[in-house]
Amino acid sequence: MPRSPQRHLRKVAVAGISLSDCGRVDGPTPYALHAQAARRALADSGLGRDVVDGLASAGLGTLAPAEVAEYLGLRPRWVDSTSVGGATWEVMAAHAADAIAAGHANAVLLVYGSTARADIRAGRRTSNLSFGARGPLQFEVPYGHTLIAKYAMAARRHMHEYGTTAEQLADVAVQARANASRNPDAMFRDPITVDDVLSAPVIADPFTRLHCCIRSDGGCAVLLVAEEYVPDTAKAPVWVLGTGEHVSHTTMSEWDDFTVSPAAVSGRLAFERAGVRPADIDIAEVYDAFTYMTLVTLEDLGFCAKGEGGPFVEKGRLRLDGELPVNTDGGGLSACHPGMRGLFLLVEAVRQLRGDAGGHQVRRADGSVPELAVASGTGGWFCSSGTVVLGR
User: Fold this and answer.
1) pLDDT value at 2 more than 60
2) Where are the alpha helices (DSSP H) in the chain?
3) Which residues partner with 285 through β-bridges?
4) How far apart are CA 379 and CA 81, in angstroms?
5) Kindly report the CA angle at 255 between 139 and 288, in degrees rounded to 5?
6) Whole-structure pTM value
7) What's the CA gap between 176 and 333, in Å, rounded?
């Protein structure tokens, strides 16, 4: 049997990042937002588009990512269209990093764009109550089990098991808004209080409207490159140190424990592979379609023990000047949420590690910028998770 040639595994860096226009964007198509974000990310990297030989894209077109590649004028030799909801981009980043490390690609562009808000306003689409009624979902849809109801059920279970309160969940939204108030790109920046969150219209008990993510337009892009490209990049690299991914369930009846998210597995893998501990992390960017997602993900990543998420998120700990700044741009609760938000987590983490976050830049006690960040995306109704550890 022939022996496989041994390869040196290359280090992988984030060379370029960018947002497209975000928030209220009524004119451009989703394809245009993809292109805008891609051009800006390449400009940020200082590299030409001719170096891009890999593309990762999901959520647009019949043949994603082939249609996006064609629109961007790219002919990639490595592609990924993995689609696992909000965790898609962390999982894709893991796949791309592995491909670059192994020499199957040299520079992979991850790109996303959505006009979710504008499409509803223009009547091009309507809100949907479920993801369909085929396969395993056929056993839940007849009961009116909406996506938000699934998150609400999970939150209620955590409240029942551990005494987590609605006020603690509301505090997550308050701190996200406080972070957004210093981010000029955030869609909502006016301060809110715990009472504001609790008195907002109920969407699915215990969630009021302010417990839930906003709906926006927008896109972003991230360029990952092999280590030999770093000397030619425009900015100091941010390195991919470790990644992890995990799929838990699709039907709620197959979810073993509503108080444990798949980040418990993906996070452990990412930290082990990066050779760091949660205590070493300076900032965390986590998926926050609902306040409970932030709380339970922080538990499962190991920042506090299971059941202690409620007390952990209190007393301003998640703010820019807190003990663990979380969702430093304001997150999906206040900054932007155009659909699958996971790629925005990576963009914001890199901004913070570079020291490029402007008015919402996090500083450590000695005045330096953060050294280590974790980005953890969640997909479906806690169905999947991808976690990426990044460092300077």
Assistant:
1) no
2) 30-45, 66-72, 88-102, 116-121, 147-162, 166-180, 194-199, 263-274, 291-301, 309-312, 331-334, 342-354
3) 375
4) 15
5) 105
6) 0.95
7) 7
**Band (129; pLDDT cuts 50, 70, 90):** low
What does the pLDDT read at residue 126? 66
| Cα angle 371, 373, 379; round to 5 | 170
What type of residue sits at position 262? P
Spatial strand order in the sheet of 384-391 = 78-80, 54-56, 107-114, 218-226, 12-19, 238-247, 384-391, 372-379, 283-286
The DSSP secondary structure of 105-119, one letter per residue, reads: -SEEEEEEEE-HHHH
Whole-number Å distance between alpha carbons of 258 and 238: 35
Q: Give the separation between CA 182 and CA 310, rounded to whole angstroms.
A: 25
Distance CA 17, CA 40 (A): 7
- Return the closest-CA partner of residue 108 out of 85, 80, 84: 80
Report the pLDDT averaged over residues 111-121: 88
> CA 149, CA 171: separation in Å to the nearest integer?
21
Pairing of strands 384-391, 372-379: antiparallel
The residue to which tokens 């969702």 are assigned: 327
Residue 384 C-beta-side C-alpha neighbours within 13 Å: 19
CB 80 within 8 A of CB 65: yes
In angstroms, the Cα distances linking 266 to 109, 273, 331, 332 are: 22, 11, 20, 21
Beta bridge mates, 375: 285, 388
* Greatest alpha-carbon span in the chain: 69
Stretch 301-318: mean pLDDT, rounded? 98
Per DSSP, 6 falls in state P
Q: How far apart are the C-alpha atoms of 109 and 38, rounded to whole Å?
A: 8
Q: Give per-residue pLDDT as tens, 212-233.
A: 999 999 999 999 999 999 999 9
**Pairing between strand 54-56 and 78-80?**
parallel
CA dist list (Å): 293 to 84, 140, 162, 260, 379: 16, 22, 15, 10, 11
SS (HEC) of 169-202? HHHHHHHHHHHHCCCCCCCCCCCCCHHHHHHCCE
DSSP letters, 191-240, are ---HHHHHHSPEEETTEEGGGB----BEEEEEEEEEGGGGGGSSS--EEE
